[in-house]
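Continuing the batch. This is chain 6 of the set; chains 1 through 5 are on the previous pages. Same settings as before, nothing changed between runs. Recording input and output for traceability.
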Amino acid sequence: MFDYSLDFKNINFREHPELYRVGKGEQGVLLVEPYKSEILPYWRFKTPDIAKESSEKIYQMFFEYLEQDDFVGADMARKFLQMGYTRSRRYANHKSGRKYKTNPQKETSKEAHTQARLDILPNEVDPIKAESAAIFKEKWMQAKMNEKYLQLLARHKQKYAD
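Output for chain 6:
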């Protein structure tokens, strides 16, 4: 489970990989340093050409982290590839990038939260963003299924009881 209680502003996860938890999906992708600062400048998906360049650069970084046996870096690169897919899909389906009329996470009552999750904006399919999403998805799946990545993931979980 991803631990949001950590002092992310002051932790260098390259020096302290024992503090890193994989979590679900993209959890922590914009928190874990120094990886966020290393990868984020290359993360773009506005057009398929931009998405291709971005996903290839991040995928290259993924392999560089693997070569260094840096699981946290590799996992963060995998998360950025996943986020490239999910954000591109969001914009492919909703031009504004917003799925809901109001943000369910900002609702204070359970009833308001539930209602906000039902108020989904209509789909406006954008084929350009859909193509960007497909480009990121391919790299994300390749990273996620990479044999060395899976070995490092198992080792990290075993060593640090993820």
